[in-house]
Protein 1
Amino acid sequence: MIPLRTVQTAGGEVTVLLRRADRAVGYVKDGVLQTLIDAAGRNLAPHVTAAVDVLLQEKVRQALVLGHGGGAASTMLHRAGVDVFAVDSDPCAKPLAQLFFRAPPCLDVIVSDAAAYVELAAAASFDGVLIDFQDSIETPRAYLSPSFWRDVARVLRPRGMVVINVTSWLHGGCAWRTFQGALGLGGFDAVALSEEYGAGNRILVTARGATAP
Ligand SMILES: C[S@@+](CC[C@H](N)C(=O)[O-])C[C@H]1O[C@@H](n2cnc3c(N)ncnc32)[C@H](O)[C@@H]1O
């Protein structure tokens, strides 16, 4: 691996690495791979492709992406004509995605904590939300909080769709039941969980239940 750039952020150390063998480029935070593209700029993470495909099948026009990283999902959605608003707590995410991952400069990437962003975002702003901000073994606190999911439900339009990247840490860990409970209390009840993709990630597709506030 050839390190191309290293940035220290409040959330950890972000490194962009070039894989010698095939020239794939990875966005790595504190040793954990967040985004991987090939030499032609194509996403190499099958769960990210699957999540984007669901949003495109649902004909999403305005998408919120919580967790931009190297911007693979945001870039694919943007290229398909979707208006994308991405959020990442690390200020380096947007410039690194642009420089090394071919993210278009016009992508809106807001530097914010994801939960703080949805708490203040206008109601019914998006018809699709991709939740992808688990960047380590630790489950983000927001994932376990009904109030975070209520905020996500609030920013979603009535027939909107939420797709969550479920890591193997989350699915196989002790927080899994708490996560499912928080999602339900937040107003999401129609849930479909995929099989595992390559590195153990699954995608969970859900929408606001009939009883959502
Ligand atoms: C798995 S990566 C996202 C990958 C991206 N969706 C893609 O398709 O390339 C997770 C990202 O979430 C960000 N993140 C972690 N905690 C966050 C938080 N509380 N709020 C916003 N972003 C956060 C990390 O900085 C990291 O860039």
Protein 2
Amino acid sequence: MQLITLALSPFGRKAHIVALEKGLDITITAPTVPTALFQDPLVVAKNPLAKVPTLLLDDGTAIYDSPVICAYLDSLRQGPSLVPDGADRFGVLTRVALADGMMDAAVAARQESIRPGGERSQACIDKQRDLNLRAVAAAEADLASFGSGARLDAIALAVALTYLDIRHPGIAWRDRAPKLAAWHAEMEQRPSFVATRPAS
Ligand SMILES: N[C@@H](CCC(=O)N[C@@H](CS)C(=O)NCC(=O)O)C(=O)O
């Protein structure tokens, strides 16, 4: 299996961590045109959305986007199950969606912030920032539900928070969420997190 991704992509890091937590044999490949994925021949040939991460199976089949990649990897009967089958399944998946939404907002704000001055919308950046602050408050209030360790909601939330640190340090989410800050520091100590931590 080959995961096409960029080191700084939070979606890609989440999928890579899932593979490591499952003990799966996976090769990480960087796109050849990282700044314009729609021009990357491999990414475009395999994923018309031209996004990373894209997972390539050994027979060439492509799987995207990251929630589907994570579900696929978790379905392989190796390693611990990262999403429970029982009553809490949809609670866990909803918390994963919260974390994925944080990543979406943080990536959108980043893309907006690097547009030329005249084209940049501060209102758009502020909207994504407010979304992330609401999500941080919700996670701080509901931290006990996220658990810790190798469960997909915990993995996704910790990855989203690290991405905020890298791309939006000004949000200073720790000031508003001390319990989350301590929890996040512990999650980042897991070997799968250390192995995938992007150089900022
Ligand atoms: N919903 C997708 C989002 C993936 C995504 O937005 N990836 C970014 C990199 S972090 C990307 O490929 N952007 C390229 C583009 O939008 O042109 C997922 O979960 O995989």
